[in-house]
Amino acid sequence: MTTRTSAPAPAAGVVRVSVPERSVRHDLRAVRIVLHRELIRFWRDKVRLVSGLVQPVLWLLVMGTGLSNLMASGSGPAGDIDLKTFIFPGVCAMSVMFTAMFSAGSIVWDREFGFLREMLVAPVSRSAIVIGKCIGGAFVATVQGTVIVLLAGLAGVPYDPLLLLELVGLMFLGAFALTGFGVMMAARIRSMQSFFGLMQMAMMPMMFLSGALYPLNGLPTWLSVLTRFNPLTYAVDPLRQAVFRHLDASPALERTFNPGVTWNGWVVPVWLEVVIVVLMGVGLMGVAILEFRRAD
Amino acid sequence: MPDGGDAVEVDGLTKRFGDAEAVRGIEFSVRPGEVFGFLGPNGAGKSTTINMLCTLLRPSGGTARVAGHDVVAERDTVRRNIGLVFQDTTLDGYLTGEQNLRFHAELYGVPRSVTTDRIGQVLEMVGLWDRRRDRVQTFSGGMKRRLEIARGLLHSPRVLFLDEPTVGLDPQTRASIWEYIRQLREAEEITIFMTTHYMDEAEYCDRIAIMDSGRIVALDTPEALKAGVGEDRVRIQTADDRAAIAEIADRFGLEAVMSEGAVTFRVVAGEAFVPRLFAELGVPIRSVSVARPSLDDVFMSFTGSTIRDAEAGAGDHMRVMMRAMRR
């Protein structure tokens, strides 16, 4: 340094940092810290945690009870099964969906408040940031979903540890795919208002066409086709199948309430549904990464 | 710098947005250890230039090297070697001061063994050690800016970019920010590149470049720039200002104007001119003052307007018109 050739060595106590070349390890650290930040923020925001519970509980207890009543008074085949039990997996999926979208929306928030810039100018790959966001969002949504799972008793679902674990695992995969979808949308949107407007527009049809609230058999063809194209369908069905495996419902009930998803008469196996969800998650995240790279 | 070269080296740098040319082929270099100021009204191209140097914007033409590395070809290397403090805050208000810094350390791959010490050190430096566990939401504007400066320094960058570091802060806080910047120069071996539109702040820089409409119109030390203007500013109060202005024009060929209630004009060697003025001016003079050129005058002499007028011209024609009508 020309102007300070005679300058003394750094004052005692000055910690010199030399930032190493970029490496996979460095990118993994970046993924971890982006994820960690999601968790801190989720934990700090208790209002969000509580408000995220209100809607699912409403669906489960109010809608579920109300509709059960309707079915019991009619001559429906409900028999000894509670409608709440039927919609329980759907409510789990919905809760996860809303939380995941919210987490993805924080990218738009970060952009508005400038924090996104701090991340984008770092000497770290864009994929590390997007992956951290997606896994963080999925994790937070799963935590929220786990609280719903703990309400299983209210819906007549048995507290079997294996079942609970299975549900939590499936919810994580679904949440991951949904966060990927949200982050992909958030990559292009500049304002919170338009993000939530768009999300509302996308989420309502996805929810109604997913089999979360009614069985997908015996529908008119147009509706049937639409539900098969809805990604959320493949996230809800494995949850329901898991729940029904732990009930002893009669075959007739099983046919009505847990028909599975069929493609032209062929029942799609659970493993394939899980694969569809995972592939979708990875694909959407890939698109999100490309979008953030291009935004340079 | 690896080869002892310049901290920043810019050659023919250009940026076009559609048809508009925001930066028109500028050229300059910044020596290591320097505090280099970019001065100009809003819209002059300062922020566009700094964004290109920080690898946030791709130049339309020309080259720029920062810390010895090309901003386009070696983007990541440049990013590792620079610290950034933007005009708008880029902190996460939900996190504490310390968490914001830890996030940055992880993102920049600061070795874990030194992270905690280094965070403590930069927090001390900006006087925020006691508030490290508080959420940034609760910080004042000045504290946020100081935390951002600390964060920009965390990974020991070679060049620290400060884009309008004191904009929107009250004068006292501005002064304290400058105090930190001065201390920083003592403690760390670092080059500081900053933009500002406050004339008084530009005085703190080792060298300044004046930017106007996408071009660098002057570049030198503040002293040399002021000396280059050559003319002092003379302000007189007289019994009849209008007659005085007319007579100054007739007799000395100088253009005087009314400014802040006094007849004002520029002349070489103002002190020596005053006796002549008293002897030859027919209008009685009540008071006189002579001032050395300020950076405002420098700016005026290079761009033909004061920085405030230039700013208003860039953004707000209405205000200029209003001002003109009031005169």
UniProtKB/TrEMBL annotation, chain A:
Domain of life, source organism: Bacteria
Residue ranges crossing the lipid bilayer per the database entry: 47-67, 87-109, 130-156, 162-183, 195-216, 266-290
GO biological process, one term: response to antibiotic
Subcellular compartments: Cell membrane; Membrane
InterPro entries tied to this protein: ABC2_TM, ABC2_TM_bact-type, ABC_2_transport, Nod_factor_ABC_transporter
Membrane topology (UniProt): Multi-pass membrane protein
Keyword Lyase assigned: no
GO cellular component term, pick one: ATP-binding cassette (ABC) transporter complex
Pfam families per UniProt: ABC2_membrane
Location of the ABC transmembrane type-2 domain: 47-295
Family: Belongs to the ABC-2 integral membrane protein family.
Name recorded for this polypeptide: Transport permease protein
Automatic annotation (TrEMBL), chain B:
Pfam families from the UniProt entry: ABC_tran, DrrA1-3_C
GO cellular component: plasma membrane
Domain ABC transporter residues, every copy: 8-238
Subcellular location: Cell membrane
Key word Translocase present: yes
Molecular function, one GO term: ATP hydrolysis activity
Top-level lineage group: Bacteria
Alphabetical list of Gene3D superfamilies matching this protein: P-loop containing nucleotide triphosphate hydrolases (3.40.50.300)
Any one Gene Ontology BP term: response to antibiotic
PROSITE patterns for the chain: ABC_TRANSPORTER_1, ABC_TRANSPORTER_2
Keywords: Antibiotic resistance, ATP-binding, Cell membrane, Membrane, Nucleotide-binding, Translocase, Transport
Keyword hit for rRNA-binding: no
Topological relation to the membrane, as annotated: Peripheral membrane protein
InterPro entries: AAA+_ATPase, ABC_transporter-like_ATP-bd, ABC_transporter-like_CS, DrrA, DrrA1/2-like_C, P-loop_NTPase
Record-stated family: Belongs to the ABC transporter superfamily. Drug exporter-1 (DrugE1) (TC 3.A.1.105) family.
PANTHER family: LINEARMYCIN RESISTANCE ATP-BINDING PROTEIN LNRL (PTHR43582:SF2)
Protein name per the record: ATP-binding cassette domain-containing protein
